[in-house]
Amino acid sequence: MSEHLTIVEHPLVQHKLTLMREKSTSTASFRQLLREISLLLGYEALKDLPLTEIAIDTPLTEMRAPVLAGKKLALISILRAGNGLLDGILELAPAARVGFVGLYRDEATLKPVQYYCKVPADLADRPVLVVDPMLATGNSSAAAVDLLKERGAHDIRFLCLLAAPEGVERMRQAHPDVRIVTAALDEKLNDKGYIVPGLGDAGDRMFGTK
Ligand code: URA
């Protein structure tokens, strides 16, 4: 598999994903599993964060020890389903700055249109992690990354739960520099743009809407 796409094959990730796919899983369990799996995916997605060394005193001696370098992580949720991944990632990176991007699809042009954007300042100086559970067509993900790059971001990773080949290809063409981390690469999109076999509408399943 290319460096552009990382599938996290850890047994705990795969087990939790199967429970999330099952349609009889309750909203409460889905939410809990999403929180747990986001920790494991976030651990992988953030493994290339830069480190620097500082001097500290342990109870026994002085030493130089690694800490995260530079400005805090910018965590960007693509509304609304991205919000389900925020809590877990914020447990890993509690000082992260958080931004939100909202896009809808224009029915005439089928292109994503921005309706909301509030992101941290100094994106050019921060590592950026974009979160959205379902990488389906890739149109909104690619548009969100366009928008972040327009604001200076250049060190960007993308975390999702499930990806479709169409979405991965769209992102690879539009943003070959953005590494995608996912729990699984599914078979295809159906004619309504749902990932198959998938898990349904991630937003509806995590928020209990229909
Ligand atoms: N968004 C979802 O929530 N589910 C899909 O299968 C595709 C896009």
Task: Give your account of this protein's structure.
Its EC number is 2.4.2.9. Pathway: Pyrimidine metabolism; UMP biosynthesis via salvage pathway; UMP from uracil: step 1/1. Uracil binds at residues 195, 200-202. It holds the Pfam family UPRTase. InterPro entries: PRTase-like (IPR029057), PRTase_dom (IPR000836), Upp_B (IPR034332), UPRT (IPR005765), UPRTase/APRTase (IPR050054). The chain has one domain: Rossmann fold, CATH 3.40.50.2020. Helix content is 32%, strand content 29%. It has helices at 11-21, 27-45, 83-92, 139-150, 165-174, 202-207; strands spanning 5-7, 51-57, 62-68, 74-78, 97-105, 112-118, 128-131, 134-135, 156-159, 162-163, 179-182, 184-185, 188-189, 195-196. With 210 residues, the protein is of the alpha/beta class. Helix 1 runs antiparallel to helix 2 (27-45) and helix 2 (27-45) packs across helix 3 (83-92). It is built from 6 helices and 14 strands. A 7-stranded mixed sheet has the order 1-11-9-7-4-5-6. A 3-stranded parallel sheet has the order 8-10-12. Strands 2-3 form a two-stranded antiparallel ribbon. The N and C termini lie far apart (36 Å). The longest helix is centred in the first third of the chain and has 19 residues, at 27-45. Residues 81, 134, 136, 193-195, 198, 201-203 line the site of uracil (URA).
